[in-house]
Specification:
Layout lengths: L4 E7 L5 H11 L1 E7 L6 E6 H8 L9 E5 L2 E12 L6 E8 L6 E10 L5 H4 L4 E4 L3 E6 L8 E4 L8 E3 L10 E2 L11 E6 L7 H8 L18
Parallel strand pairs: 1-4, 2-6, 7-10
Antiparallel strand pairs: 1-3, 2-3, 4-5, 5-6, 7-9, 8-13, 9-12, 11-13
Length: about 220
Amino acid sequence: MSDTFVVEAELRSDEGKGASRRLRRLEAKIPAIIYGGDSAPVSLSLIRKDLEKHLEKEAFYSAIIEVSYDGKKEKAILKALQRHPAKDFPMHADFFRVEANKTIKVSIPLHFINEETCVGVKLGGGRIQHTVNEVEVLALPGDLPEFIEVDMGAVQVGEIIHLSDLKLPEGVTSTALALGDDRDIGVASVLAPRGGKGAGDTEDEAEEAASTDDAPSEDAGDES
């Protein structure tokens, strides 16, 4: 990955919902935690505006991050992020420690390319539908891609691009496909023009998708 992200944090000893509210409202900080590996979980606090600046970059969500606190620097990934349900600002962040020689599961964003020249749209009058916008992969930290490209250029009306059609970098595997061919979900498709032949069938097929759950964060929903 091209970007290197450094998250500056402080140790947090005062825990609980009340302490987290005070941290957000009075200090413009948010609670966080770093866990995993052979070390115990550590409660942290982050300056909210600094984290928000990182969150503006797509690469941050799948990058190897350097979390700096108490004179230590630990490699981690952003495992979960809790946002305010109405105002969307970050409320809590979970970081998971990583080691260079141990594979990890990470959701990688999809970049859909050549949509403006897609055959099914330009010649067939169809419309592109994205079924998923990210896929979970298994890889060593050093092999993680920033994103995975999905080339829509040659896709015809009624065709579906599946997980198995994606070109993953060497050393990167799809966690869904590792569970069997029945997990080979549709990623994107070109739907037929409305009212056109096969439009209903194509749309039904394109709705195949897998759902994943993020690891829960603490202090959920306590901010008003």
